[in-house]
Amino acid sequence: MFSFEVGSLLNIVLILAVGLGASVMMIWVERRFLGFWSDRLGPNRVGPFGCLQVIADAVKMLMKEDWIPPFSDKFVFVIAPMILPIVMLLSLGVMPFAPNIGIMDLNIGLLWIFAMAGLASYSVMLGGLASNNKFALLGALRGAGQMISYEVFMGISVLGVVILSDSFSLREIVEAQADGWFVFPQFFGFIVFMVAAIAESHRWPFDLPEGESEIISGYNTEYSGMKFGLFMIGEYIGMLVMSLLIPILFFGGWMAPFGLEFGNEIISGLFWMGAKTFFFLLFFVLVRAALVRPRYDQLMNYGWLVMLPLALVNLLITGAVVLYQAG
Amino acid sequence: MFKAIGKQIHLIWSQLVSLWLVFLHIFNKADTVEYPDEMPYMFPRWRGRIILTRDPDGEERCVACNLCAVACPVDCISLQKTEDESGRWYPEFFRINFSRCIMCGFCEEACPTHAIQLTPDFEMAEYVRQDMVWEKEHMLIEGTGKYHDYNFYKVAGKAIGGKDKGEAQNELPPVDRRSLMP
Ligand code: SF4
Ligand code: SF4
């Protein structure tokens, strides 16, 4: 029970604590790095280097008036923000972090994550619908359209990985990369997945469901206090999930690059997994800092006319090569 | 078809370039001035807290002409003229409502005696709104401010106690018009 094996209590507590802690700290890391990338300092006043900023934010959010608009559909309004963090935490459950570290090893791990990502779009949709507000409705519409269409080729883009590793289980996918990361044979799959991952966690530049400068705050316009906080933390956990998924699928998960393994394989695995995840988290932030939000029709055109064909061609070629090699 | 693909490649390339350029900013020094810990340099001509100055003899410069009150676009100056025994005019009260003042400096420009001046101090926040209304004793300083030598009554033609007409600087004694015979 208290040992390092998949599903032990120690693992569950550790992963939940580290996962939640990391995604909360990410709020500060993101703002700090956004600051650096725009020649500012970012939040640096609460605690050493400002790392307790999150606590100040949380206090602020808890103290705010938790207002349920009288014109909203109250039950759905309260439920909607809970969905996002819950499903995102659930998808954290199937992640293999290192040998023997993980909460559960589903043999359909990848499908599980897509299912959870699909459920996450309900949070946006229901939140926007229940608010009974024009801008929230527009945000929900955009969110629904965007997440559904990007999910399509997100699924197709990883099928190449599934073909190569012959499994849907994330742990087996990592183990299949022992002699070569999938980013090389699956480069286009990686590109498509990366774009889709950003769109899926509806972060900049694909934050059209929120689109502050266009539709106030989109689906969460009517939310305040901790309900808004749930949306926000859900988004950050989603970002963490996607940043874990990219190394797992394409960059060898916990495998050390160039044989830089050290010490215990669990410790080195956790280190490399953490390093890769942090790299992609920072990449998410860099994308937010650098790129501008596309128009909605550009987003849709890009998804269906560029990304989908690219993913399909990638899948086709991968399948053909695998079949050819199998003889 | 090929044109469309070329366009996409160009698009992706431009996105990558902007990612790279923004990334390079991490090596730049931040432009932030960490204000309460580190004071920014305030330019001498900065328009901040308003003072009332005295002339080199230590008398109040303000002659209560009301020009500043007229010039003020938000009408936040109010004053009342009075006169001392020597005939000098001075304000009985002089009140500026700093919660309305927009620090435009028009009062300083309008003032004929350099009495009202703006200074580089900008830290004027208060907890109580009423504390933003400043009276003469809050604004009157002991010095001459930005103009050290100017002394209105010494250059003006008005007679006050101790100085008659014609005794001001660069002034000729008044002409006795009865002596102006052809
Ligand atoms: S600075 Fe402008 S607004 Fe302020 S008292 Fe002078 S004239 Fe009025
Ligand atoms: S401060 Fe200047 S302009 Fe205003 S009343 Fe006094 S002398 Fe006149």
Describe the protein's architecture and organization.
Chain A: The chain crosses the membrane at residues 6-29, 75-98, 110-129, 150-168, 180-199, 236-257, 269-291, 303-324. The complex is a heterodimer of chains A (327) and B (182). With 327 residues, chain A is mainly alpha-helical. Chain A is 68% helix and 0% strand. Chain A has helices at residues 9-37, 53-63, 74-92, 109-131, 134-165, 170-175, 187-200, 212-215, 225-250, 265-290, 296-326. Chain A starts with 8 loop residues before the first helix and ends with a helix. The model of chain A has no long low-confidence stretch (mean pLDDT 85). A three-stranded antiparallel sheet of chain B has the order 2-3-5. In chain B, strand 2 (77-83) and strand 3 form a beta hairpin. The radius of gyration of chain B is 28 Å and the shape is elongated. The mean pLDDT of chain B is 88. Chain A binds chain B through residues 33, 35-41, 286-287, 289-291, 306, and chain B through 8, 15, 18-19, 21-23, 25-26, 28-32, 34. Residues 71-74, 76-77, 96, 101-107 of chain B line the site of one iron/sulfur cluster.
Largest sheet of chain A: none
Helix content of chain A: 55-70%
Going by CATH, the architecture of the domain at 50-152 in chain B would be: 2-Layer Sandwich
Helical content class of chain B: 10-25%
Query: In total, how many beta strands of chain B?
Result: 5
Going across the biggest sheet of chain B, name each strand in turn.
Answer: 2-3-5
Order of helices and strands of chain B: HEHEEHEEHH
Number of domains as seen in the coordinates of chain A: 1
> Proportion of β residues of chain A?
under 5%
Note the gap between the termini of chain B.
Answer: 105 Å
Rg for CA atoms of chain A = 20 Å
Straight-line distance between termini of chain A? 46 Å
The largest contact between protein chains, plus residue counts on each side, is:
A-B, 14 and 15 residues
| Rounded Rg of chain B | 28 Å
Average per-residue pLDDT of chain B, rounded, comes to 88
| Global morphology of chain A | globular
Structural class of chain A: mainly alpha
Broad structural category of chain B: alpha+beta
Supply the CATH class of the domain at 50-152 in chain B: Alpha Beta
Transmembrane segments (chain A): 6-29, 75-98, 110-129, 150-168, 180-199, 236-257, 269-291, 303-324
Catalytic activity (chain A): a quinone + NADH + 5 H(+)(in) = a quinol + NAD(+) + 4 H(+)(out)
Organism (chain A): SAR86 cluster bacterium
Membrane topology (chain A): Multi-pass membrane protein
